[in-house]
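lol so apparently i was supposed to do this last week
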Amino acid sequence: MATIKRIGVLTSGGDAPGMNAAIRAVTRTAIYHQLEVIGIRHGYQGLIQGNFKVLKAFSVSDIIQKGGTMLKTARCEAFTTPEGRKIAYDNLVRQGIDGVVVIGGDGTFTGARIFNEEYNIPFVGIPGTIDNDIFGTDYTIGYDTCLNTVIEAVDKIRDTASAHNRLFFVEVMGAEAGFIALHSGIATGAEAILIPEIKDQAKILKQTLETGFKRRKSSSIIIVAEGDDEGGAFKIAEKVKEDFKDYSTRVTVLGHIQRGGSPSAQDRVVASRLGHAAVEALLDNQKSVMVGLQNDEVVLVPFRKAVKLHKDVNRSLLEIADILSI
Ligand code: F6P
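anyway here it is w/ 6-O-phosphono-beta-D-fructofuranose bound
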């Protein structure tokens, strides 16, 4: 069994609030175990370009409360090629790095899984994405903060929607998954929630709105995940306008504000636990696994499963949302 003496840590893909808290936890847990820590800047791109920096305990001071990532992040095409991964491997060997913690989502873990099939430097993953769409973990770092950002914004939209008796379409992130839309929709009392997991929701939406108008609702809010099959909030708003010509409609796309901000208490705690667990996993000679949380317990999930298997939303929440918004 290889002895781990020096580890690397990187963040990759879309940033998420709480990534800094995870970097801090990885760094300090490693130093506690007398390991050296190398920060790899700009994700896999930095790994290929040799963008390394030594991290000490003080290097990660004053970051637990900050959004973004102090190590920067990137989406890297070169790491998807065997040539790119070979350069990355050579750089890791040159740096004397014998284990790497990668913080990110699906794409990050896919790269790590392939790398670990080819090379024997172990990679361990920490799920960090606002989308919460990684199989094998109940939470991903950043999701809770994102939900709170969305809720704050939608509450404000509700004030103006109600003042003008308007119908608002609010588009939230989630290119492939509806977790953000579904949970923020429930939390804001949205009249309807459109998510990528459920197709052809437009027809039902019209019925829902008709019922609301009959009941003289002073406002209606439809939360639309950006990956919904209708093509996003603007498109669905256009469709609905044809049927409700007299009704005043507006569209708000929340965009990248959902990715920023100081991490919530939950994200800081989850990031701290998973950062600690990732280093422990490397010390236990684990390889090609993600650390996740299931029923509040830390679990190890093979990258193979985390990236291949689909994590479904809790569809019964849609029914609850319908009932509660009559
Ligand atoms: O981080 C995941 C995500 O927020 C998706 O929901 C969204 O589609 C995507 O990132 C957008 O990211 P970017 O603007 O960085 O390409």
